[in-house]
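Can you give me the bound-state structure? Components:
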Amino acid sequence: MSAHTTAAGHDDGHVHHHYTTTGLDNRKIAIWAFIGSECMLFASLIATYLIYKGRSIVGPFPHTEYVNEAGQIFKPILDIPVTSASTFVLLMSSLFMVLALQAVQIKHLPLPDGAGWWTRAQRSSQLWLFMTASFGAIFLMFQAYEFTAFVHEGLTVKTNLFGSTFFTLTGFHGAHVTAGVLWLTSLLWIDRTRGLGPQDELIVDIAALYWHFVDVIWIVIFTLVYLIQ
Amino acid sequence: MASIAAPTTAAYASGENENTGIWSWITTVDHKRIGTLYLWTALFFFLVGGFEAVLIRTQLMRPNMGFVSAETYNQLFTMHGTTMVFLAIMPLSAAFFNYLIPLQIGARDVAFPRLNAFSYWVYLLGGIFITLPILFKLAPNGGWFGYAPLTTNRFSPGPNIDFWVLGLQILGISSLAAAFNFITTIINMRAPGMSLMRMPMFTWMSFVVQFLVVLAFPPITIALFFLLMDRFFGTTFYAIAAGADPLLWQHLFWVFGHPEVYILILPAFGLVSEVLPTFSKKPLFGYNVMVYSGIMIGFLGFGVWAHHMFAVGMGAVADSIFSLMTMLIGIPTGVKIFNWIATMWSGEIRFTVPMKFAIALIALFTIGGISGVMHSSPPADLQQTDTYFVVAHFHYVLFGGSIRGIFAGISFYYPKMTGRHLDESLGNWHFWLNFIGMNLTFFPMHFSGLLGMSRRIYTYDAGQGWDLFNMMATWGTYLLVVATAIFVWNFVRSRTRGAIAGNDPWGGATLEWSIPSPPPEYNFAQIPEVTSRYPLWDLKAPEKTAGIDHSHADAMTITDAHAVPVHEETERHTAKELGIPMPYPTVKPLVVAFSMVVMFCGLLFLRNGMFAVAMTITIGGGAAMVAGLYSWLTAPLE
Amino acid sequence: MSMLRLRPAAPALLIAVALLTLSACGGTEYPNSTFNHTTDLNTAIDDLWGRLLFWGTIVFVVVEAALVYTIFRFRKRPGGPAAKQIHGNVALEITWTAVPALILVLIAIPTVKTIFETQAPAPAGALVVEVTGNQWWWEFKYPEYGITTANEVYIPVGRTANFVLRTKDVLHSFWIPQMGGKRDLITNKTNNLWFTPNVDLGTNAWNGFCVEYCGASHANMKFRLFTVQPDEFESWAQHQASVAVPHRTPAAPATVTTASNRQPPAPTAPAEPTLGYVFPAADLPDHVIPKTPVPARLTYDDALLANGDPVAGQQSFMMGGCIGCHAINGNPMAMSPIGPNLTHFASRHTLGGGLFPNDDHHLARWIKNAKAMKPGALMNTIGIGEYDPILKGPVTAGLTDAQIADVVAYLRSLK
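Here's the bound-state model for the whole set.
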């Protein structure tokens, strides 16, 4: 938690005029160390999910039907089309993040004569930060919908090993997305109040690194949990 | 605020010109002060853990003793392990990371000074959180390894394990925050010319350790999170009835637990690698190999975790693989031992107290290493695991190794930290009583273990052939009490009575010895430009370093840093006089740490079904933490 | 520094102590020694251990000698030579990387060989003993004979015993130090450990322990292993497999008739001599006889035991809640698998997870207040007036001391 909080916009690190060995800002190095640590965190969660895969005693199960003693039928619980849509949303948000960073980098450049709407849009960091955060929020709504639906269908964290591992793994990821949305929202707030310029490239860059990391992790989760049966 | 030129006056040594009020300690962001806080706190917990050990040994002095109850004993051995690992040895190492790394690499502070303060406060509060329950006989009682399913609600319905789970989560945050900080510091804050292969060995070993922390703590965070979810929210990660596999806990725990062993020992290796060359008047033998072997140890340390699990029935193939990996790790460790001996070879060995501790580390760690190779062989390990033989083994590694390295470090760096020497003759008493006590306590455990005495038993029957060994171990422990008392007396007394040390009392080779003792808040008035591994020897004893590469730093940004050739700094000025911007003191890291611990405390109330209370405290703490963080991050550093 | 001169002597002193102590390890003074050759398993392990100790000792002596020699020879002396500034030596460093590697290879090869040997499936014809760990006692089942017993396990010499290890609750570990290595009992998993006691081992008794921390009374979870001759084992097994019949002592013949009113008249009742083999109490080595002290605050008048009535005791056993946990084969009301099976309880030498000798003195106190006898014991407190930590007050519905004497007499009759 500490690294992304310190990287969240303001300077805990020594600022640019300080000499650094690599020439990079301290925060940039810290965020990479943090992401390395996060990899191990998700690796542990994913490994646990895989170890417990197929070992639940009672259903509902992710990919297969389950009939309990009372004859009640539980359909395979994962809704792959819906989650594919939410995955697409999250991927798109990564694209917007790239555009947001680019906007911060180029917004000070003079607009060429007769620049079209796209060229103008490319310089609007507010637009792209807003889009990124919104798509992150939409992803979270998908997840809230999914969790609610599962609970209605009879799967909670207490039901079986699948329920415990599934909700914990995707919930952990959801918490990361939530933190990211808050982070992006605060960047957007800074952008609206004082405007982000090229001198702020670093703080947007760090947020982008985190955001792309969270997206990549989701691709892994989506593949291992949803796609592979 | 007078700056005093002569480094030999008492006023100078006591750091009179610095603000020393209690508030200055609470709000400090100075890495040296934080290091000092770590040192005092960790020494306090070392005494607590030691006291627990004394009670344990008294109960085991004779067969069928009734000195403490079974329940109390189980709490004591759990807390002894937890305290020594998480609250004593790791933070003692952290004290040195904090104090030394910036000095050794020629930096004015760590990369994130306020985060550094945050790490300390989280450690202190987490330590209190996990230690206090023992006063109410509610301490964790599932062992420091906390194997599921014993630690689940069904078998441990009380709040004891809750304290352990939440306490370790809190402490983990402290370690991780510190690790990100030191990785960044070492990568990015080195003085011009201080290439990686010129870093002092302590900094190198610390560097390796930070990577181990960053990669090893997440698995235990997750393992603990599962347990926390099981205990508070009814998930099934370790629930037998749901078909859970208790080996999941063991794998996650030991994926952390084995690198943790190297987290505990490598800083000590680093410290003795500073001490041995200094008192042999020779450079470290085979610096490169020492670096590579440290990296190898750290790397292989991630591939050997299941050697803690040879008895669980993993199958012949897995047992063989983990056995061979474990044996491999013996090679880089052996190289270190031989290189240390070669460092002393043909030197001029001065037997100061730190040198004695360093030599004793080599002697005793070797014993722990050999018994380690003995249980890398699974069939033999089946006769040894969970017996006192293993207790003997890891106490030779941790008490014979880590603690000896730390005592070497304390006696070596005490003059740098305080400006005064520890008393030599008290130090000798401490060393010898500790050395004898240590061997008297732990060597007999090899025998009681091989003769069938299992671990973690609060009592044993008469006539099993273990009586003599236990009696010896207990008397050895009492000797250690005397030794430790002498050390504490020396440590406290020498702060005001010790002989004045000066910049460089031992003839050191590295940058920390070029600045006054204790160092001024800004460390280096001018950032030095380093041209070899032994910058201070280049300056003061060039004949020692004539045989190694010297070069000027790659020209990169040296002009930015206004670096100057390495020199001894004897003038003492304030940062303001020198125009060095220093970080503002701030209480915000403490506020954030405190609210975070409050947030964790809230969960404790879930046990009594006080859902509303729990949520109020947790959400209140969380909100205070976020507010504190916001205020912290929006305030300028310096 | 006079102390300095002691320094080189310290490791030598240690070695001397070590050798002296080790040399004494074989004798009966160390009854749980792991250095035995009593089975195929521990012979294999000890061969390996011998190698480890051999190389370990060499490394120890070389390193410590080099260290002591170095610090002695190169200590700073007035007028001594100046330090030589050596930064490293590639050849030397390769040597002390390669030599330990070579030693490790010499250890690794027999290690892997022994792993595969000792973890192979048990040979055909092995005697299967199903071991179930419980907090804090052991259950042993012999599917071949239909036996269920607790805390004492008999195996014949010369035949491989294959222990099938499971646990009902938390993790435990099964270890008989003198027979070979240990193996954990893992929840939701079945483990195996097998060994063959040497034919020439003789009839003997050995200590067994739980070695995985399992909670409050981990230290008190012990068992006894009896290696017996094949004919003795057959006799023991046949009898243990039979249903429980209260065997009266000749001194109390009058009670037999009253007993037959309640129970089907047991045809085997007169056949007193058909009792199977039991390891003779007189031959028990000292170290397998528990010496655990009884808590002083737990009082019981042993004089009552002389008047114990087994028939009344059986009644109390049925009515007093005992059958809620304990099974006695042959008693259709006592079938619960929760606690130890008491079918041939009187043939056992210990009680309470191997914690106390199985005599009337200890048994009465155990029944009265097991939790006081053994920390955390899950058995209910039965003696009226005893403090019950679950009720947080004195027991009101339980047995009086006289009734306990009856139950003792009943259990004593289950030979």
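A couple of observations. Residues 127-241 of chain C form a domain with the Immunoglobulin-like fold (CATH 2.60.40.420). Chain C touches chain B through 104 residues (CB under 8 Å).
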